[in-house]
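Example 3.2
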Amino acid sequence: MLGFSGIIGSTKSPQLSDRVIEGENYHFQYTSNSKFTQDKFLCENDTYVWGLDGYILNRSNLQNAYAKAEWSELFLNEYLKDGKGFIKGLSGEFFGFLFNKKDRSIQLFNNATGSKSFHYYIDEHYFIFSAGPKVVIQYLDIHDIATQYDELSIAQFLSYGYFINFGNLFKEISKMYPSEIIKARNGKLHKTNYRSFSNLKKFESSENQLLKDFDYQMTEAVRINFEKDRSENYKHYVTLSGGLDSRVTSMIGHQLGYTDQMNMCCSQENYDDHLTSKRIAKDHQHDYFFYPLDNPKHLMNPADQVSQNDGLVNYSGAAHIQHALKASYGSNHGLIQSGQLGDGILGGFLSQNHRIAPDYRTGLMTDLFLADFDAEFRALTADYSDEESFKLYTRGFQLNHNCFWLNEETSYYSSPFLNEDLLDFCMRIPDEYKFREFFYIKWIQQFQNKLTSYPWEYIHMKPNAMWKVKYARWINYVRYAHKKYSKAVRLKNQMTPEDYWYNSVPELASSMQNCFEKNFDKLPINFPFKEKIRTYYSQGNFNQKTIVLTLLEAVNQSKN
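Structure, written as tokens:
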């Protein structure tokens, strides 16, 4: 995982980069992609070492506001004045650090959603940090610091397909929470949060007023993302499917004058996502690239994905996007623009039309490990006041970031729905408006009616009438009920029919079995749940099997 790695208390480090700053018992190094280089830096002066990685959507505005041309100096000055306030004012996907050479303290910070975040280790002798846990382990090994597998985190990873508790394989390594600033000095740690999207007070305005306000917020979020590309002379690269979220990004961007787009779709050929995205691109005269998912070749080597995401999320979830990007993204492209998280924050995270308590069973893939940690599983919801906040911080800010992590070597995965101000706004819209995405559809119909000109993959019809949305579940039931083998049809008729592939493409099942056997045999003797893992894999469906393969590959890579 790209970004900064470092140690305080020693200079012994794994060699990861030739961009290094080293001094008396400290060593920092930096790896990054080639995009938006004006936003990023690793600097030092007589007192400080400081770094920032990622992209900042409002960097130019800040430089104009503070009348200072040198971005790294502006950053240092303003962070020293008001670190918490200054970081809160940044928009984008980023993280960084500030090291004080005099008092030997270090501060780490990340962006509001945690897409860029640090893993770290601390004791009375060392402070070690890196983007992913795999590099932290390399530092620990160099310094002969023993580690233990974290049984609880492993059980929860196997149960959900990602580290829902912001954990990792090892007890000794911690991960920053979204919107967090941590300060470490002399073996002590202080944490603070500069923003929260949980338990926000709901708006009291009328629905009509909120629709108007949302239209402004949404349009501005789209504009600022596209303008970032334009400011650095990049062509816009926009993922596009048959869903609503991606067309919001692409079509509103087009309306705002950002017409030089490459639209990319990956799905089964002639499925709704393919046909709809192709038509949208053609109607708007965008360049178009289609990556057919008519075979599962992108799923046959989990080592590729785990080497990028450190095994923090099931490798299979975004492997198709990674392969499609490698085949279509060019050096002239900027952000990887998408509609990520749109449906979630506009009603998809709600199961009722009012606030309800979170349920730790939401998203649970198996109950095989519940008996081992019943109290700990139940405690997963303790920090969240309601269902929507729980799903936002777990699915939204952990599971969904897989696209960002898998593709960061290419560029930065982006979405207007991840805009901090828009997120705050959406989490304040009353649940009774957002439930079943009714607010979202009303906004599209009233303010962005052109978006209804194309079928919505979820209902296989144009979303131009509310009755289609209200009765979507019944419509889909009727659509398939007459088919004798409706379950088989549904398994095949989707963007990425993994279970269908597993049952019909022998090469996929064979490849996965070989991968399982190879890495399972390498597990340490004392690795937790070995027999349960064997059972889970042998009896599991495709998704459960790939969760196991991700874990095994992550363990293997952490030892090499």
